[in-house]
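Input sequence (409 aa), recorded before submission:
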Amino acid sequence: MKILHTADWHIGKQLKKQSLNEELKLFFQWLVHTLKDENYDILLVSGDIFDSYNPKTEDRALYYQTLTLISQSVKHIILIGGNHDSIAVLNAATPLLEPLNITVIGGVPDDLKDELIHIQLSNDEECVIAAIPYLRDKDVLINQTFDTDQDRPSQIRAGYAKHYRTVLDLAKTHYPRLPLVGMGHLYATGAQLSDSERDIQVGNQGAVSSTLFDGYDYVALGHIHRPQRVDKLDTVRYSGSPIALSFSERSDHKQVIKITLTDGNIDQIDVVQLPQFRELSTIEGSLEEVQSALAKYKTQCPLPAFLEVNINQQIRDITLNPLIEDMIDQFNKTSTQGKILKYKVTFAEEESRLESLFVPSKQIDDLTHTEVFNELLTLQSQDTESRNTLMKTYRDLAENYQDYLDETA
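Predicted structure, token format:
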């Protein structure tokens, strides 16, 4: 039995107002061919299918078109909801997808046994998939009142542990002796983040230990966009996002994970490197050096590169701004090799902290609602304790509102 683990597609994601769907489409084409050519049996997608709760019409169309094509190349597809996904949106088409052997667990079901999916192939190979979606506070908090601020994080971790342990016990009761492959969308302690992870809980209050997964033969995780093992365990992994979602991921080697089961045991776990569909590159130097590098720039990928430019000058000179803007405008209009999405100018002799000056300034469209609230707290110079309390309250309100939307959709 061959299983492929991927996650964090983030359909509809934009980088500085530029859609990343074109590179996703190339990844989906690669995925369809690979599943078919390598005779995979199961595809696991561990959350954050979409980038927003309310995907655009074209993003939903891409999702359904992709699932239709993939269903012709693999026997079973299992998807779970992530923190960016709307439970209602993912679950909406469940009756239509089930005949295609596509199982979607958008949120925690009323009966936890429904998170267990028994797979039996024609060659009698069997396994159980524990498809555990992103657990919201209402799913894991044992009670809603806390004696201290420190009590809430411990309650969250205890709730996670209880959920995974309950599903494990159900699997051992109903499917004894079968290999158990878990799925999850969460933040594990020690995971290395990139700039594109949003709404990671403040202070790691939602971070869980790898001991949570004791008893599972393999755990296919999503939520963290850099591919990595958890606590150096071969059997607990983040596949990472299939494409770079921020410039901080420009050097990441994107991958999916292949799991092979033989005679009821995990026989092999292999990393499958993904092609790079679009470069995210940084060009740095003086204005003259940047101009020269841009004139010679050529991408090795099928799509034009997305570039960020860092210009370093000795002395502050406001007359440079029009020259820089004209250079970027001309490059973006004429180049077939790339597009400059952002730039920064620094001055070595500047006494103030102008090294962090971005031109143009940060746009509100580039921020999530949580990041906007965080910026507001920064401007108000809130102390750490007040900041964390206000941020926690805002997250709770936002999540309760989304739960309301899911229930009334």
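Checked by second reader. Residues 280-362 form a domain with the Double Stranded RNA Binding Domain fold (CATH 3.30.160.720).
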